[in-house]
Amino acid sequence: MKNLIALIALALMPAAALAEAPAPDAPKWSLAIHGGAGTLDPAQMTPERRAEYEAALQAALDAGAKVLAEGGSAMDAVKAAIIPMEDSPLFNAGKGAVLTWDGTNELDASIMDGRDRSAGAVAGVKTVKNPILLADKVRTDSEHVFLMGAGAEAFALDKGFAVTPPEYFATPARREALERMKAKQLSALDVDHKFGTVGAVALDQKGNLAAGTSTGGMTGKRWGRVGDAPVIGAGTYADNRACAVSATGWGEYFLRVGVAHEICAFKASVYAPCRKVNTCLANCRAWRCIRRLILLFCPTPAQSGTVR
Ligand code: GLY
């Protein structure tokens, strides 16, 4: 499992309300993004390439941060952060997505709103430039949660999404990886080097959480394979009562455990007793001392891996 590097972007609920007033300079919002898990080959990571990745990640952060700083919603921030990564050929999502065994791109994405746990997801779409927007459209404009393949594309057409030619998504680097995989009978783990799935979690100024994830899956995937990214509860989950999660790594492992929901459920179970204790002790003179102890178990937003 050590090599099955998994990365999870996690945003916690504003627990400060449970324990003590936030410091005056505490962030009123937070945003975390990821552009994939795994090891980049140091030989390929020249200073120029590193600068390219950093600039692309910064552009994604800036786009999401702008929304949040201006008082926008966590949902809008998640979409704003993911779109530039889907548009960048550096990541395994949208343009630059890895290729299937047949040399096509099949894109997966999902998004979830922590306010009401409404969610949308798509899998195996081939002609939608920004699958995260289509996932959100499923959430807002259908009575479903998860659409796949030709049906998802028909829905996209119905809703006015432009048809993006399949050639837009494939890059020479992804073609080379697929050819090398086939020629040398390698596994996806050997050619992907890093997974490159993208994701974002956000906490907005109103205290609402959201999470989103987008991916091309794994190089050489066959038979309509779908990973964790578009599966609500596996790769993506958000619940205002707990936290927001976007995962990246080898999807089969996240699917088996339902990782994103599992983490949220765990956080919810940690917070519930904290709330109760807080209410009971709110007027107690010994509260100040006890609160220090409780804080150990009630993480604040500052511990949530916040990126600003
Ligand atoms: N985590 C992305 C995938 O396995 O498809």
Task: Please provide a written account of the structure.
It is a single chain. The chain is of the alpha+beta class and 308 residues long. The chain has a single domain (5-298), classed as Glutamine Phosphoribosylpyrophosphate, subunit 1, domain 1 (4-Layer Sandwich). Helix content is 38%, strand content 17%. It has helices spanning 16-19, 47-69, 74-87, 131-141, 149-158, 172-183, 188-192, 251-257, 259-281, 287-295, and strands at 7-12, 30-34, 107-113, 118-125, 146-148, 198-203, 209-215, 236-238, 243-248. The protein has a 6-stranded mixed beta sheet with strand order 2-6-7-3-4-5. Helix 4 (131-141) links the parallel strand 4 (118-125) and strand 5 (146-148). The longest helix is centred in the N-terminal third of the chain and has 23 residues, at 47-69. The protein is globular and about 60 Å long. The two termini are 31 Å apart. Residues 195, 197, 215, 217-218, 227-229, 235, 248-251 line the site of glycine.
Features:
binds glycine, alpha+beta, 308 residues, three-stranded antiparallel beta sheet, Glutamine Phosphoribosylpyrophosphate, subunit 1, domain 1, 10 helices, disordered C terminus, disordered N terminus, six-stranded mixed beta sheet
SSE inventory with pairings:
Blueprint: E1 7-12, H1 16-19, E2 30-34, H2 47-69, H3 74-87, E3 107-113, E4 118-125, H4 131-141, E5 146-148, H5 149-158, H6 172-183, H7 188-192, E6 198-203, E7 209-215, E8 236-238, E9 243-248, H8 251-257, H9 259-281, H10 287-295
Parallel strand pairs: 4-5
Antiparallel strand pairs: 1-9, 2-6, 3-4, 3-7, 6-7, 8-9
Bound molecules: glycine.
